[in-house]
Specification:
Elements (H helix, E strand, L loop, with lengths): L5 H7 L11 H20 L4 H13 L8 H4 L16 H11 L5 H8 L10 H12 L7 H9 L5 H18 L6 H26 L1
Helix pairs in contact: 1-3, 2-3, 2-7, 5-6, 6-7, 7-9, 9-10
The chain binds fe (ii) ion (2 copies).
């Protein structure tokens, strides 16, 4: 990626779009997610533009999180409008970003599905999914999440699988449904484990 959309550059530099609907504590969460993203990107040695892209994803993922669901639902197509209230802010942010001319599909998928997970995620999507869950401001299972955070980004494939599994377990424990993209993401992650195992076995047999 050689250039970022000006809205992403502005977000990475600390200025969110005028249509942002995020209160003070939400903005603090977005900043913490962005800090993790920036740190991980730096440690993975991605180029400077890509570091700002990861940071922008952290800052924009919850850009509409504090808008009431009745405002977000009319923005969405019929399928997405059926999603639970707490998930609408991702797909709604994608609509607003597209209106602004953002065409970075990997970025848009990361924002749109940061709560659910999606098998089409690129590395940015996987990292945002993990950072949103692992950021230090959440009180839920603080110590365990801190330990997972300590393994990032070096052990990201395993940590992302652990995060995806934990999110699914919470949904099951609350007797809530799983969206198809969540299941698709999980199955892809499990295929990758099988692939990794086969590769290890293959190399042992040689
Ligand atoms: Fe969110
Ligand atoms: Fe978030």
């Amino acid at each position: 990626m050689s250039r970022l959309h000006p809205l992403l550059e502005a977000a990475a530099a600390g200025t969110l779009p005028p249509w942002t609907r995020a209160g003070e504590s939400r903005r603090a969460h977005m900043e913490r997610v962005a800090e993790l993203m920036e740190r991980w990107a730096g440690r993975m040695g991605v180029d400077a533009v890509e570091v700002r892209r990861w940071r922008a994803a952290g800052l924009l993922h919850d850009v509409l999180r504090d808008a009431p669901p009745q405002e977000l639902r009319p923005l969405l197509g019929p399928e997405e409008a059926k999603l639970p209230d707490g998930i609408l802010h991702g797909p709604a942010a994608v609509i607003r970003l597209r209106d602004e001319g953002v065409r970075d599909e990997g970025f848009l998928l990361a924002i749109g599905y940061h709560t659910l997970g999606h098998p089409g995620f690129d590395l940015l999507g996987r990292m945002l999914f993990a950072a949103d869950f692992l950021e230090p401001g959440r009180s839920w299972k603080r110590e365990w999440r801190g330990e997972l955070r300590g393994r990032m980004p070096e052990e990201y494939p395993e940590v992302v699988r652990t995060v995806a599994g934990a999110r699914i377990q919470r949904l099951l424990a609350d007797a809530r449904p799983l969206e198809a993209t969540t299941v698709g993401f999980w199955n892809l992650l499990m295929d990758e484990v099988t692939g990794e195992q086969e590769e290890r076995h293959g190399s042992l047999e040689e």
